[in-house]
Every structure is written in structure tokens, then in C-alpha cells.
Design a protein that fits this description.
Blueprint (H helix, E strand, L loop, with lengths): L1 E5 L4 H12 L4 E5 L8 H7 L6 E4 L2 E3 L2 H10 L15 E2 L7
Parallel strand pairs: 1-2, 2-5
Antiparallel strand pairs: 1-3, 3-4
Helix pairs in contact: 1-3
Length: about 100
């Protein structure tokens, strides 16, 4: 399953989330801290702190346009997904208040 690292306020992240929803693709949703240096999970998978980051197996995508192109060409096992049957999994926000 794909995993999207993003912040709640990021406009580019929202574009990616809308694309995932439009295509009905299931993904794990991880909201990361607003402070870049606290985004350790993003750094661990991509070697940088910027979002959005999409991980699909061994594929790690760190640029919005690259993610959108990847999703345009994506076909999981040649089958269409349904957003209703595969909603995103939400994680707890990592921000420390």
C-alpha cells in the first residue's frame, strides 16, 4: 500500500491527496510536523524533509509533479481501486503541542 507523508496545510500535498482520491487509490496517510527538522519519518524514507513524499514499495517520490505523473501511470495489478472500499488510513498527527 502507498503511504503519503504530508502536512495538513500544504497546498501541493492537497493536490496529491485529491489525485489519490480521484483515482480511488488506497493509501496510508501520515501527517507530519510543521517544523521540517521534526519530520524524521520523512527524512528516514527520503533523505530530505520536504513534503509531499509518496512511498509505494521501493519507490520513493519527493516532487509533486513526479508524484502526479507516477499516479497518472499507476495501475495496481491492472485493477481499478475504489475509494469507497479503500479509504485512506489516518495516523495521529506527530506535532508536539
Amino acid at each position: 500500500m502507498m503511504k503519503l507523508y504530508h502536512t495538513a496545510w500544504c497546498p501541493e500535498c492537497e493536490v496529491v491527496r485529491q489525485k489519490l482520491a480521484k483515482q480511488g487509490l488506497a493509501y496510508e496517510d501520515e501527517i507530519v510536523p510543521d517544523v521540517r527538522l521534526l519530520r524524521t519519518s520523512v527524512y528516514d524514507v527520503s533523505g530530505q524533509y520536504y513534503v509531499p513524499v509518496l512511498v509505494d514499495g521501493e519507490t520513493v517520490l519527493t516532487e509533486t509533479e513526479e508524484i502526479l505523473e507516477y499516479l497518472d501511470a499507476y495501475s495496481p495489478n491492472g485493477h481499478e481501486s475504489s475509494a469507497a472500499s479503500n479509504p485512506p488510513l489516518n495516523s495521529q498527527d506527530e506535532r508536539k503541542d
